[in-house]
Write a structure and sequence with these properties.
Order of helices and strands: EHEHEHEHEEHEHEHEEEHEHH
Bound molecules: 2'-monophosphoadenosine-5'-diphosphate
Number of helices: 10
CATH superfamily of the largest domain: NAD(P)-binding Rossmann-like Domain
Distance between the termini: 33 Å
Helix content: 25-40%
Oligomer: single chain
Strand content: 15-25%
Number of strands: 12
Strand order of the largest sheet: 2-1-3-5-6-4
Number of domains: 2
Structural class: alpha/beta
């Protein structure tokens, strides 16, 4: 049976084995998918050993995506832009192909929820790895503008400069933002510890769409903040998680599983 895995540290709460098992059942593919916790100083060795033992492909999560980028022997253009790899595949000629499906997962989930990005004024909060992976795919959808805002403004400026050749992207400090956006995407890790970036409440208006890349059983801190201020079109990152997985599955298996039922199952099991 073909072997797949997800590498991270920590990894025990990863939902990827569950998601890929449901995909395999849905598409009638015989495969196994396991969690592997690589030591913080032993990622490359763990991945090489996995492939030496017959592994066909793997996902990579925190904190190894940049290391995976350097480990890959060939890269997709979106992985090059993201500077990070979340999907590795062993090719027929023995090369490690690196791709990044996170940004595509975000875009697909927004489309899935009826949000067309073309022409929108988009605000992306955060300038870490998650933001970097999203900017290229967001610009490819031709928003009217994309503002990257971060607590540490220099990081947002560096990303805006890097991606500026691809479209209308600028940087901002969090406190200088006002209410001229149609879509706000939160890529910061603030929701992980129940915090909300320091933002003006005037950003939120009834026509806004709010998307937190984090997810939870109840509203994330950011989504709860937006809801309280009157936003009602609110999404969390569970759909992005499933969509990026579907894209990885398609890279490995050449068949794209449906995401709707898997999102529903995951949501039900979280409750
Ligand atoms: P990831 O790979 O998930 O993007 P990261 O690279 O550690 O993680 O980046 C975390 C992001 O969340 C950063 O943009 C960080 O802002 P700083 O660059 O100023 O550190 C942002 N972040 C984390 N906690 C935050 C908070 N409480 N308020 C605002 N931004 C926060």
């Amino acid at each position: 049976m073909d072997r797949y895995a997800v590498f991270g540290n920590p990894i025990k709460h990863s939902k990827s084995p569950y998601i890929h098992t449901l995909f395999a059942r849905q598409t009638q593919q015989a495969l196994s998918y396991e969690r592997i916790e690589a030591p913080l100083d032993g990622f490359a060795a763990a991945v090489m050993s996995f492939f030496a033992q017959g592994g066909k492909g793997c996902n990579i999560t925190v904190p190894f995506k940049e290391e995976a980028f350097h480990l890959a022997s060939a890269l997709s253009s979106r992985a090059q832009l993201a500077g990070a790899v979340n999907t590795l595949k062993l090719t027929d000629d023995g090369l490690l192909w690196g791709d990044n499906t996170d940004g595509a997962g975000l875009i697909q989930d927004l489309h899935f929820n009826g949000v067309a990005i073309s022409g929108l004024r988009v605000l992306l909060l955060g300038a870490g790895g998650a933001a970097r992976g999203a900017i290229g795919p967001l610009l490819a959808e031709q928003p009217a503008q994309l503002v990257v805002a971060n607590r540490t403004v220099s990081k947002a400026e560096a990303l805006a400069e890097l991606f500026q050749p691809l479209g209308p992207v600028t940087a901002s400090a969090l406190h200088l933002l006002d209410g001229k956006f149609d879509l706000i995407i939160n890529s910061t890790s603030a929701s992980l510890d129940g915090r909300v970036p320091e933002l003006a409440g005037s950003l939120i208006h009834p026509d806004i769409t709010v998307y937190d890349m984090m997810y939870g059983v109840t509203d994330t801190a950011f989504n709860a903040w937006a809801r309280k201020l009157g936003a009602y079109r609110i999404m969390d990152g569970l759909g992005m998680l499933v969509s990026q997985a579907a894209e990885s599955f398609a890279i490995w298996r050449g068949i794209r599983p449906g995401t709707r039922q898997v999102i529903t199952e995951l949501r039900r099991n979280m409750g």
